[in-house]
Design brief:
Layout lengths: L1 E5 L4 H11 L5 E6 L7 E2 L2 E4 L10 E4 L6 H10 L3 E4 L6 H11 L6 E3 L5 H13 L5 E8 L9 H13 L18 E3 L2 E7 L5 E9 L2 E9 L6 H10 L7 E3 L2 H4 L2
Parallel strand pairs: 1-2, 1-5, 2-4, 5-6, 6-7, 7-13, 8-10
Antiparallel strand pairs: 3-4, 8-11, 9-10, 11-12
Helix pairs in contact: 4-5
């Protein structure tokens, strides 16, 4: 399987490139990143011609929210299956992607978080939601993350809302706009951006006389690589043209 990388010069893209290059059964294909064209990653130059990726079987997309849809339109047009790690895929954007992608093959797999632990955290939150009145999410990331809230927080909030109606009575008045967080399908989400963090999330549930906190911490970006490799190997065999999350691959 030939695997191309879009955004290969970035922090996550370069790590994905190095991981693919050293993985059994995978061959590193063309690298694309117009912002870092000419640099070398895993012994291979990064280019700025998207059509060069047509020789691959799968492309891993780790770019930015403002260019990801245009890139995916290109990968679809040249027949590439895509594994997407770029943030910003809320329900509206996923709906637009389904319309853009149409029927497969190829397939597109959008992954809010490649960490196996984070996927389990989201599933546990979904299970807990019907047993508590309401939930809030606090997500904490490094200060170079380009968007807020994170894709993981958005996906978690949407899944909690689908699992149970939020029943809260909040009488406090925001003295400063945004103090109560962003609204994700009725679930408040608070985004922290500080140096020293990698990727962390707490899901807080409140009920009568008790609370429950489900927390996941990523301490190194290498935690994402097993999920990336699993997605790359499975995307071509998915039974839907556009799939969201690793759950279908992991069986949870």
């Amino acid at each position: 399987m030939i695997v191309a990388v879009s955004g290969a010069g970035g922090r996550m893209g370069s790590l994905v490139t190095e991981t693919v290059a050293s993985s059994t059964g995978l061959e590193l294909g063309p690298l694309y990143d117009p912002h870092n064209a000419g640099v070398t990653v895993a012994g291979q130059p990064v280019g700025d011609d998207p059509t060069a990726l047509a020789s691959a079987d799968v492309v891993v997309e780790f770019t930015e929210p403002d260019v990801v849809m245009e890139n995916l339109a290109t990968w679809r047009s040249v027949g590439l299956s895509a594994v997407v790690g770029t943030s910003g895929f809320d329900a509206d954007r996923v709906a637009k992607l389904r319309e853009l992608w149409g029927s497969g093959p190829p397939n597109c797999l959008v992954v809010p978080n490649f960490s196996i632990g984070a996927v389990v955290m989201m599933r546990l939150s979904e299970i807990a939601a019907p047993h508590f009145a309401a939930a809030e999410i606090i997500e904490m990331h490094h200060d170079r993350k380009v968007d807020a809230p994170s894709g993981t927080a958005i996906a978690t909030g949407e899944r909690i809302s689908e699992a149970a109606k939020q029943e809260r009575t909040v009488e406090s008045i925001e003295l400063l706009s945004g103090a109560r967080g962003a609204d994700v399908s009725g679930v408040p989400v608070h985004a922290v951006r500080l140096p020293g963090f990698v990727a962390h999330q707490q899901v807080l549930f409140g009920g009568t006389g008790e609370t429950l906190t489900i927390r996941h911490d990523t301490t190194d970006r290498s935690a994402f690589m097993p999920g990336v490799l699993a997605a790359v190997r499975a995307v071509g065999s998915l039974n839907q043209p556009v799939t969201v999350g690793l759950e279908s691959i992991l069986g949870i």
